[in-house]
Amino acid sequence: MGTSFGRGGATTFQQDLQNSDCIVIQGSNMAECHPVGFQWVMEAKARGAKVIHVDPRFTRTSALADVHVPLRAGSDIVFLGAIVNHVLSEEKYFRDYLVAYTNAPVILREDFQDTEDLDGVFSGLDEEHRAYDASSWQYEGMHAQAASGHREQGYPRSDGESDRAGEGSEEDSEELTQEARGESHGSGGAGIGEGRPRRDETLGDPRCVFQVLKRHFARYTPELVEEVCGVPRDLFEEVCALVTENSGRDRTTAIAYAVGWTQHTVGVQYIRTAAILQTLLGNIGRPGGGILALRGHASIQGSTDIPTLFNLLPGYIPMPHAHTGPDLDTFVDAEAGKKGYWGDMRAYLVSLLKAYWGPAATEDNDFCFDYLPRLTGSHDTYTTVRNQLEGVCKGYFLMGENPAVGSANARMQRLGMANLDWLVVRDFSLIESATWWKDGPETETGELRTEDIGTEVFFLPAASHTEKDGSFTNTQRMLQWRHKAVESSGDARSDLWFTYHLGRIIREKLAGSADETDRPVLDLTWDYPVHGERAEPEAEAVLAEINGFDAEGRPLSAYTQLKDDGSTACGCWIYCGVYADGVNQAARRKPGKQQNWVAPEWGWAWPANRRILYNRASADPDGRPWSERKALVWWDEEKGEWTGHDIPDFPKERRPDHVPAEDAQGPEALSGTDAFVMQADGKAWLYVPAGLLDGPLPAHYEPQESPFTNPLYRQQRNPVRIVGKPHPANRYQPSGAEPGSEVFPYVATTYRLTEHHTAGGMSRWQPYLSELQPEFFCEISPGLAAERGLEHLGWATIVSARTAIEARVLVTDRMVPLTVQGRAVHQIGLPYHWGPNGYSRGDAANELLHISLDPNVHIQETKALTCDIRPGRRPRGPALLDMLREYRRRAGITEETGTQI
Asked: 607 preceded by cis ω (within 30°)?
């Protein structure tokens, strides 16, 4: 969504679903996984809205929907793309919205070639390095902007010269394609360089985005949906009618998704297809419309805003790359937008550096820009596992993570940890990642022996959310403060306590050091107030630092106050305002009955406490609401400002007819109709000319493992998916028409339950939850049970190229066999909450999974893989390895299987 609209967060908020005329839930089981938010879906339904649930399984969400659409896992782009084709071919799009607020009229370069021209790939593919050169994807009349560290795109060297294409080493090129740069567009769309693109307001030019879009999606037809997704034509056409009839000037449709979309090798493109659909229908920035990214944890959004990610600084500022010596201004020049609020990036970055290093950060030393770490390629969690196996990574902190059962290819995770010097695990209980060295599956098979493992494991008990103060940033970008209810017992400590005191001790040990490499640590502003016998840091003091101060130490109230001269400090520019006037805005709890339906005084949402992003688009180009029924913000001519129910996502006094000066930069370059204020051109992007690594438009590729060939193109899989170097612990199964694929004929998908949470580190230690869901199970259809001799509540063994697991059998009509490419396909549902520790124990679904990643954000493909299933419990000890060797022999699996482009 960052590349489509300018920010990576949900475009709307859950309470706004009550205003929807139609809600599509796809890639999510919202009723069971987000039950509190689902109440607003039910509110909308009570008001007459239609609810559509698209999911391989019939769930509680399906039971409450008007329409349930079962489809094959991994085929969503075909389904969504066919709705896009329907909207375009039947002229159901909102034309006035398109021309005013999107890049539909923009003309592309002559040398751009689509998947339709190149049988499944776009122009610019470098097969050797599994990467695209995106220069041909640009607008005509624009010059592509270099990204941080991209020497091959013309980044200045320290000697003042410029590296050009082809001069960087192959190693540099491979590193640069592994940076997961798509995540850096979470609050500021990708740059498109300089120049003025050609436009055709009639949308008739064959090279304009609108016409390219029509050609690209033309083959995504109802017949193709039936062939690839297994969805009958009449059911698909019912969905098309409901979505289009409930979109337009007077009606709006919302889309909600979760990890059922993201956890694929084309996960970003799933979301892109939804973004295209919602943009064509004019549903972005309007009440009851938008796209909700449903987060599975209380602060997943917060963990990307103030990131636990390797490639970002707070507020989605990209981490600089370890190329030859760019200074602060060079970095900003390469990364900052020329138009919109991302054009003020220097102020955001300088204020961040001042928050980090305070008085030590001065104009003379580039505000300590050199102190920032530099990327040397990918450092995602799966690359880290490879580095462990290769002896590069020697130590590992696990804080709120349980990769021994909770990450893809759990066996590979354990083998990596077995090669460490030390491992620190902070958790509530002795999770599998703390005990694998003595009781993991590899000790049972004899692959590992406890006495041979050199890893020193430290377990440190952690405080729970009820035992500490702090904020959560939830699925709709809203910060809510929670106050400590009880003191943690024993040695359990908060994450804030652990991090602060670890930093304090390290700084004390380095005190007096003359080594320049120690200066970044010694110069940190590490002076948070503490309280109580345990010297707990003040969480509100951290929030205040994140919010930011001016030169006199007064709290800032908006990111528009940030300066690039070092006079302001701010720990995360998009959170600026959360501590306005010295008041913890996240702690506000004003009852809804005492405010309007937007409820701006309950918590605080970034940015600037607005709840619906891009809401300038809720009014027409003249500033009038598209309809009174869907009014949100509008231009008040008498007051000379934007006003309405929500905080306008637009310069407050910018007139609708404003035309910026030719040489205007940053926010001043926004015209009165540039509704998408974080984008480099102020428009929503139907077509992405920059910012994505696997194509400017979505295209259907089969999952890494699939029992079917790709009927659209010769290209079977995403050509730039990340599979890494071949490794014996990460073998892939044959797919489609490849020899051996018949050995693994079934599709498996993982999901979560209401009663358990993620890998079970919290819930499996709770007796009541463990009683409600006591055992790991697999969900199968009666047809599959009959085909494979499986009995309800009996045992089944599920086998992949990596390993085999056992599960209780749940035979249910909720798993519907589908007809795909003329033959029946059975799907197996696997909840992923189990492991061998706790009250409720069982094998982990993630043992089956391979490691193959989306190239943009490096998320793993867990929602679609192939497998075999057989009755009975799995073999134990070395017998398990014997069974796996036989499966691999029959399927012809080697370390190279499935790694080809």
From this structure: yes
- Determine contact, residues 28/263, Cβ cutoff 8 Å: no
Contact 269, 720 (CB under 8 A): no
Q: Which residues contact 196 (CB under 8 A, 6 or more apart)?
A: 141, 142
Q: Residue 449: which pLDDT band, with cuts at 50, 70 and 90? A: very high
Phi then psi dihedrals of residue 395, to 5 deg:
-135, 155
Best CA proximity match to 251, nearest among 11, 48, 46: 48
Q: Answer yes or no: is 867 within a domain.
A: yes
Q: Six-digit token pair at 794? A: 């009996």
Overall number of domains in the chain: 2
Helices (H), 374-524: 381-389, 403-406, 410-417, 432-439, 441-445, 495-510, 519-522
pLDDT of 559:
96
Residue type at 181 in one-letter notation: R
Whether 540 maps to a domain, the answer reads: no
Which of 146-160, 304-318, 621-635 has the lowest average pLDDT?
Answer: 146-160
Q: Bin 30: left if φ > 0, else alpha if -120 < ψ < 50, else beta.
A: alpha
C-alpha–C-alpha distance, residues 252 and 242, integer Å: 11
Mean pLDDT throughout 151-172? Answer: 38
* Domain, as residue range, for 218: 1-107+207-300
Give DSSP secondary structure letters for 281-339: TT-TTSTT-SEEE--SSTTHHHHHHTT-STTEETTTEEPPBSSS---HHHHHHHHS-SB
**Pairing of the two strands 478-482 and 470-473:** antiparallel
For residue 270, CA distances in Å to 1, 56, 301, 373 come to: 10, 16, 19, 32
Could you tell me if residue 115 is inside a domain? no
DSSP 8-state assignment for residue 474: -
CA distance 391 to 7: 38
- Among the candidates 272, 300, 328, a domain finishes at 300
366 neighbors 327 (Cβ within 8 angstroms): yes
Three-state secondary structure call for residue 151: helix
Residue 535 in any domain: the answer is: no
The DSSP output letter for 750 is E
Q: Cβ-count burial of 126 within 10 angstroms (0-12 exposed, 13-18 middle, 19+ buried)?
A: middle
Which residues are paired to 254 by β-bridges? Answer: 23
Residue 321: strand pairing partners? 375
The model's pTM:
0.95
CATH code at 286?
Answer: 3.40.228.10
CATH label of the domain that carries residue 844: 2.40.40.20
Domain boundary among 300, 334, 356: 300
Task: State the pLDDT at residue 194.
Answer: 77
Q: Which of 133-142, 626-635, 704-713 is the least confident region? A: 133-142
Can you tell me the distance from the alpha carbon of 163 to that of 157, in angstroms, rounded to the nearest whole number? 7
Question: Tens digits of per-residue pLDDT, 637-649?
Answer: 999 999 999 999 9
Cite the beta strand spans of 89-222 per DSSP E: 125-126, 131-132, 142-143, 194-195
